[in-house]
From TrEMBL, chains A, D:
Gene Ontology BP terms: iron-sulfur cluster assembly
Pfam families: NifU_N
SUPFAM superfamilies: SufE/NifU
Protein name: Fe-S cluster assembling protein of nitrogenase NifU-SUF
Organism: Acetobacter cibinongensis
From TrEMBL, chains B, C:
Key word Cell membrane present: no
Pfam families according to UniProt: Aminotran_5
Family matches, as InterPro entries: Aminotrans_V_dom, Cys_dSase_SufS, PyrdxlP-dep_Trfase, PyrdxlP-dep_Trfase_major, PyrdxlP-dep_Trfase_small
UniProt similarity note: Belongs to the class-V pyridoxal-phosphate-dependent aminotransferase family. Csd subfamily.
Signal peptide: none
Organism encoding this protein: Acetobacter cibinongensis
Cofactor(s), by name: pyridoxal 5'-phosphate
Domain Aminotransferase class V per the UniProt entry, residue ranges: 32-401
A GO MF label: pyridoxal phosphate binding
GO BP annotations listed: cysteine metabolic process
Protein name in UniProt: cysteine desulfurase
Length: 154, 413, 413, 154
């Protein structure tokens, strides 16, 4: 990026890197939970596949056709939720939504969010708050995750 | 002579000074507004027309016997004359005011559609905006009308031979096609289409939403039967659009909506309709917006449609040239005749990311399916980025666009 | 306590200063504008909201990824929240923007009408505006729905017993009545009507075009299923109206018009619809006008609907008193509950002549059938003169009206 | 009329007098030509009946329900066209329309309007030009007249 291009704040290097080379792209051989997300406004879509082990997410893959934000969001979500219980994963999702939608970055509410709900690298999406029309790009994988976790079976 | 040799005949500085919004900054950069095909910005003449109406001369129209109502009625009805002249319509009574192009087309689908018989067909093209597609699907599903799709060529032109074939069985009652594509910029050969349609016994509707903005429109010379446009793309306010149709058709068509002002007499048993065009204007119309549409037309005509067309042809040619130099950039469509709209994609960069990064740099373009999903599918794309020009667009803005696109590409690759 | 003892609680001078047009002269007389029921004048807050949008922050909405589009979308969608709060609607997604009340009612007649079955009935009243009559006639003639007319009493109230009888056979799918008559000023007992309708298994629509202007509206307390109003009577611009309906009904109803923004996906074979309310908002909406409607609502609420209601109740009582003293003047209707609208006739002077002579003296009233021909027939009249009040109306204007009416009568008799 | 009421210019004494006491109201026993005019906007209506003698209008009556302008217009029309040929009457009508619609009071075009087309008392309606919404009130009887004269028989 040359210094005259404004956008580096929004497109963190991590986002650009993961959109270019996702680490969790693909499908699972034996998916236990599957969820889909589709944004009818732009046609972007993502499919999230999970495997569970003792109520913890043991494997994640996504197949995403979309913009850099959506791709990176899917990939960083996969990384973040690996090893969490479904409940913990959904809590991270709530916190991620709050990050994108609320006017101030949400402080850790005492007790409400355990350590496991910390956003970590997902904080890279914080500047999206200034681009509301793109928020749903980052949320799409989480919509798919929610669907995956709400199904009782595949 | 190359189009690049066209002289830029407009006094762009003076014109831009008429658009207060063009002085705004976005993300601390001067606004470069290249999204006029979605909706154009408004000159002071339009803003003032609305404000002055509300400040000095306003009341509900048509039925008022007092001064404010009479004057407001005159101002409103005067715009019918302006629009008729703008389109070279044979009669002011053929001008129906609607909310927008979408409503104008829905009106035709409802009211002209009611005159079609099951088994008859409507032809649209592969490059229609949803506004000229969904109403016909709804008619098809409601009334047993067949919907036929005229294909486009790979270059993005309407395939006239294929259209001819679709017309051959004489079942087509209406050909409804865009006069200019909002995605490809294609200006369709309206006169040729009208002649083919008429030879096959069909009426023809042109969706002029994009084209009236860029060139002189003459519905008689085009051989149109219906013509629609929308005020907000013509530098006018939102909430006002126009349907022009031949009087004979309007007379034959049943009304669309019922209410005040569109009736002649009402009893509980039965109502009779007012004359055309009032039959199609139920309720209190967009009075202030219609008056401001008149101001927009007067203003645009004071500049001259031919001068605007020349300016935009110059800009478009310049932009096509400049964009071709951006690495990885692919211009979508090579139509024979193109208005000031250019869609493009870029290898390895999603159109949404292009749009957002341009926006960070003050440049407004559109990205997505542009309300033309079936066209996207035909092109094998899910989205494009689209830059579109207005009479206030200048060469320097295209330079900023092209330079920033180069940087965006560098950023991602 | 007589209503005449109501205190005039509004700061009328300050309010009038917000309406530039009230400083105008007509026929060299200061404008006395008593035609607000036809359309209200606009405060500076509304005029500025429109101008500022066009000057500083405007683009097409919903699909744009750039700053101007995002901000304009927020401003537009923010008005949905304002309107929902204004009507005390349970959800912002129940607010559909239309051109006016007329379109809102046509939308219901089309889309809810499509859910009714031949043999079912719609009940309207004898005092409906054509906007709440003609669409139901059109539905009747199109779909084999029966149209039943609930009579009014001689005083101008809805005859609730007769309504009960019309509901008895359980065939009625919808009761659609005005919440306030634009001719008689009658405020109908909405809650009682809703309860009766619901007990008979019918939905209920209130035409709130007149009443939202004058009193606090709470669609939940009223038990409404549909509620409509029109921006230009609420001190907002033309070209914008509102339909509120329960989500469950909106979800079940097919769309009215097809086009951009109201779809979820489109292929040539089939389209699927966007969620409510977008399913009912095809094409580019009246963006600027919606934003200005928001400004109107904010402004009106800053004054307070209760204060406005008290002011108008005071004025109406005062006017009824003053007009009774005009020789030969006959007030039409004595409803139990009346908003700021008074129709009258005068022996030996035709309403049109009254209106014209008042106009010569700067006073704007309306004369005619007020888009309520069947009501006129019921009253045995062809026309009335009508004075109507807004929040800017003052007692002195009613004095001028009454005095001038005395002189007009002298002139003719 | 007290001097504070503005409107005397518009409602000439002649108009007020004729609207109060029309001279040509009623029906003919044997009408040869009948025409009706109705203004759907306000419900006003007028019926004009004529008798002809040697191609000259020998009798006129009107039945009018309407405003003062409409009533007086019908009555003054009746008075004005009495004795004229149908063609002459229609010419007066044209000239009357021009009076109401055009921005300047039409001068007598040489040759075009003969003496018989002079407006005479109908000039009382000239101020209506400033009240366009009322013009159709004054024209209604002339619409009915035109209808009457365009029928070949009753
Ligand atoms: C009671 C009533 N309903 C409906 C309408 C129609 O409103 P609009 O013309 O804005 O659609 C009006 C106003 O004219 C009215 O007074
Ligand atoms: C070609 C074309 N047709 C129709 C429309 C619809 O216009 P509107 O949304 O103003 O009804 C548009 C603009 O969006 C367009 O570009």
């Amino acid at each position: 990026m040359t210094q005259v291009l404004d956008g580096s704040a929004l497109y963190d290097q991590l986002i650009v890197a993961r959109s270019r080379t996702p680490l969790f792209a693909g499908r699972l051989e034996q998916a236990e939970k599957v969820g889909n997300g589709k944004n009818p406004l732009c046609g972007d879509k993502t499919r999230v596949e999970l495997a569970l082990d003792h109520n913890h997410i043991s494997q994640v893959r996504h197949q995403t056709r979309g913009c850099a934000i959506c791709l990176a969001a899917a990939d960083l979500m996969a990384e973040r939720i690996l090893g969490l219980s479904p409940d913990q994963a959904l809590k991270v999702g709530q916190r991620f939504s709050a990050l994108l939608v609320e006017d101030t970055v949400p402080a850790t509410h005492e007790g409400e969010f355990e350590e496991n709900a910390a956003l970590g690298p997902l904080m890279a999406f914080a500047p999206l708050r200034a681009h509301r029309s793109r928020i749903r790009c980052a949320e799409l994988p989480w919509v798919a995750l929610k669907e995956a976790l709400s199904h009782d079976d595949v | 002579m190359s189009v690049l040799q066209h002289k830029n005949t407009l006094d762009s500085a003076a014109i831009r000074a008429q658009f207060p919004i063009l002085g705004e900054k976005v993300h601390d950069r001067p606004l470069v507004f290249l999204d006029s095909a979605a909706s154009a910005q408004k000159p002071v003449a339009v803003i003032d027309a609305m404000a002055n109406t509300m400040r000095t001369q306003y009341a509900n129209i048509h039925r008022g016997l007092h001064w404010m109502s009479e004057r407001t009625t005159e101002a409103y009805e005067g715009v019918r004359d302006l629009v008729a002249a703008f389109l070279n319509a044979p009669s002011r009574n053929e001008i129906v005011f609607t909310r927008n192009s979408t409503e104008a087309i829905n009106l035709v689908a409802h009211s002209f559609g009611a005159l079609l018989k099951p088994g008859q067909a409507v032809v649209i093209s592969e490059m229609e905006h949803h506004a000229n597609l969904v109403p016909w699907q709804m008619l098809r599903d409601r009334a047993g009308i067949e919907l036929r799709i005229a294909p486009i060529t790979d270059a993005g032109d309407l395939d006239l031979e294929a259209l001819q074939t679709l017309l051959a069985d004489g079942k087509v009652g209406l050909v409804a096609v865009t006069h200019m594509s909002n995605v490809l910029g294609t200006v369709t050969p309206a006169k040729a289409i009208a002649d083919m349609a008429h030879a096959a016994g069909a009426q023809v509707l042109f969706d002029g939403s994009q084209s009236v903005v860029h060139r002189k429109t003459d519905v008689q010379a085009l051989g149109a039967d219906f013509y629609t446009f929308t005020g907000h793309k013509l530098y006018g306010p939102t909430g006002i659009g126009v349907l022009w149709a031949r009087k004979e058709l309007l007379d034959a068509m049943p009304p669309f909506m019922g209410g005040g002002d569109m009736i002649s007499t009402v009893t509980f048993e039965r109502s009779t309709w007012a004359n055309v065009p009032h039959k199609f204007e139920a309720g209190t119309p967009a009075i202030i917006e219609t008056i401001a549409l008149g101001a927009a037309i007067t203003w645009v005509e004071s500049i001259g449609m031919d001068a605007i067309a020349a300016h935009e042809a110059y800009l478009t040619a310049y932009a096509l040239n400049r964009l071709q130099d951006v690495p990885g950039l692919n211009i979508v469509g090579q139509p024979q005749d193109r208005g000031g709209v250019i869609s493009f994609t870029m290898a390895d960069v999603h159109p949404h990311d292009i749009a957002t990064l341009l926006d960070r740099n003050g440049i407004a373009i559109r990205a997505g399916h542009h309300c033309a999903e079936p066209l996207m599918r035909r092109l094998g794309l899910t989205a494009t980025a689209r830059a579109s020009f207005g009479l206030y667009t200048v060469k320097e803005e295209i330079d900023v666009l092209a330079d920033t696109l180069v940087r965006i590409r560098d950023f991602f690759v």
